[in-house]
Amino acid sequence: MKEKHTPASCRGGGGGGVRCVVALLLAALVLSGDVAGATSFNYKDALTKSILFLEAQRSGKLPPDNRIKWRGDSGMEDGKLAHVDLTGGYYDAGDNVKYGLPLAFTVTTLAWAALAFKPELQAAGELKHVQEAIRWGTDYILKCAAKKNHMWVQVGDPNLDHQCWVRPENMPTPRTLYQIDGNTPGTEIAAETAAALAASAMVFRNDKNYARRLMNKAKLLYQFAKSHLKTYDGECPFYCSYSGYNDELLWAATWLFMATKRQVYADFITHEAISSSVAEFSWDLKYPGAQILLAPHNMNASGGMQSYKTQADNFVCAVLPDTPFHQVFITPGGMIHLRDGANSQYVTGTAFLFLVYADWLDTARQDVMCGATPIKPARLREFAKQQMDYLLGDNPRGRSYVVGFGSNPPTQPHHRGASTPVLKPGTVVNCGMSFGDWFAPDRPNPNELTGAIMGGPDGADNFIDKRNASACTEPCTYINSLAIGALAALAGRGPNLVASKSHGYDQM
After folding, report:
1. What does the alpha-carbon distance between residue 486 and residue 358 come to, in Å, rounded to a whole number?
2. What does UniProt give as the signal peptide span (predicted)?
């Protein structure tokens, strides 16, 4: 079982009782400054290291300038079972499977960061590395989607993969292939991949040939998603789309509209797309991201019943603890907590969206409206900083949840490559012995998984730095991809997060 998506607490017990006791105190804690404080970290270093983690997740033939010296080439026969080349791409987390839905979401959000915070990434000297991370994903996606109305969406049998604790360079487990096509549709994966390619085409607009390839494939995948409506359950129970496919369809159409400004996408967004006010942004639920992107365009959702600006505001109002409409639980220490297992994605994702939205609100001289209560953009930036600072060390335990960064960082990420010593190519691994040899020992990993943001503490701010506490210690690419824009803003603007009027949303 892939533990990061199971509701297992980091402390071995539920947090419901704690939630009932402290819920009424949280707004006061946050507003008083006792939680957030005036802490400032070396955000540029955190940004650099967060990108390094993505490089540690690469599959395929590594480039000559590979910066993760304990990583080597892996998955070099991926696709061979179908006589195609599916090398490359990313392992999503601590195992050796390449899942299409989270991989595409990682690329989409990386591209958004590169667009929204381009000046900050340039100033930090990291724009090139982010672009390389995006291209590592898009090159792989183009291979997966080479044929019309067909896409390879997963490489590796997760059940067999999870029975062997081994680094990807030496994995003996089958590289089983999974696909969607006209007979086995997968609307969520096709639409998310279309979003990833459209957003990436904007990033690479100066490379016209490559951008055109990305955009053409994005349009085809969007049409495929729209014309073959069905949820693909082949990645379940590891990546089940609990939210359905309407959010991905809106998300894909939004990015295609952003890239092209074509009326066909605007018509779908305003007349056909289904949207909803929700309190979560994640690899499974994209509504707030699309709503924030669409807020400046004066478009209405659900046949004109509600504006996307209103729905974007509703997301903010549901998250902030000091509004009359707040829904999201916040721990006593001040961290957003939706569920155990990769909870940090909600922390980094909210911080990212709040910073993007605050910039537009400043430019438009607007506020978030929570009923009749206006919320200034500065409050969104304050909350975003608090969430990122919590992960970096401003929390009840006074420790970092980013490997290799800050005070008392984690040493036992739930990660096969980092916890297994470097073995010679061709080394035969005994899967039955692998867990006893490399998973079970209570000792730091031999390889530092620099920049990996842990799944994070539970709802009572408890954290266990053990490989077997996977809800706490398993990292994921999309936790980091969502963090990169927020860290770039903090690194480039300083801890006060001065407003920026620069963005890179110009169409193709």
Report:
1. 12
2. 1-32
Q: Is 388 helix (H, G, I), strand (E, B) or coil?
A: helix
Instruction: Please give the structure tokens belonging to residue 249.
Output: 């369809």
Q: Which two tokens stand for residue 426?
A: 């061709």
Residues 6+ apart with CB under 8 A from 250: 269, 273, 274, 275, 286, 287, 290
CA dist list (Å): 492 to 86, 380, 400: 37, 17, 21
Q: Which domains does the chain have, with CATH numbers?
A: 71-493 (1.50.10.10)
Residue 246 has pLDDT above 80, yes or no: yes
Q: Tell me the three-class secondary structure of 314-342, residue by residue.
A: HHHHHHCCCCCCCCCCECCCCCECCCCCC
* Residue 235 CB contacts under 8 Å (≥ 6 apart), including other chains: 99, 100, 101, 153, 154, 178, 189
Whether 117 contacts 488, CB under 8 Å: yes
Type of residue at 244: G
Measured between alpha carbons, how far is residue 324 from residues 16, 65, 314, 328, 374 in Å?
22, 51, 11, 12, 11
Q: Where are the alpha helices (DSSP H) in 262-415?
A: 263-267, 287-294, 308-319, 344-364, 377-392
User: pTM for the whole thing?
Assistant: 0.93
Confidence of residue 182 (pLDDT cuts 50, 70, 90): very high
**Cis amide prior to 63 (ω within 30 degrees):** no
Q: Compute CA distances 413 → 417, 446, 451, 480, whole Å.
A: 10, 11, 11, 14
Tokens 């000559």 belong to residue: 64
**Mean pLDDT within 383-391:** 98
Buried b (16+ CB within 10 A) or exposed e, 85-108: ebbbbbbbbbbbbbbbbbbbbbbb
HSE value, Cβ hemisphere, 13 Å, CA-based, for 452: 30
Residue 334 and residue 33 in contact, taking contact as beta carbons nearer than 8 Å? no
Q: Which residues are catalytic?
A: 414
- Amino acid at position 75, single letter: G
Q: What is the pLDDT of residues 202-243, one digit of tens each?
A: 999 999 999 999 999 999 999 999 999 999 988 889 999 999
% helix / strand / coil in the chain, to the nearest 5? 50, 5, 45
| 15, amino acid identity | G
Tokens encoding 344: 């940090």
What is the per-residue pLDDT across 389-412, written as a single tens digit (0 to 9) for each?
A: 999 999 999 999 999 999 999 999
114: tokens are 């590169």
